[in-house]
Design brief:
Length: about 70
């Protein structure tokens, strides 16, 4: 998969989970702070991205979403 197509696929998935149009998802947005993705949606999104692209979020997850 080309870099641009991977980027578009990730943007599409983020937009879906955030309930926003894809043009609202840029490289600068943050999952929780800007898109409101947290809790079970956060876990499902990261799991989906991990399966599709090998994405992992190592370290302190509260940087990405609030603790539950």
């Amino acid at each position: 998969m080309e870099d641009r197509s991977v980027e578009l696929e990730i943007v599409s998935r983020l937009a879906h989970y955030a309930g926003r149009p894809a043009h609202a998802v840029t490289a600068e947005v943050r999952l929780w702070h800007d898109l409101g993705i947290a809790g079970e949606d956060f876990i499902a999104l990261i799991d989906e991205l991990h399966r599709a692209f090998g994405v992992t979020l190592a370290g302190e997850l509260t940087v990405y979403c609030p603790p539950e």
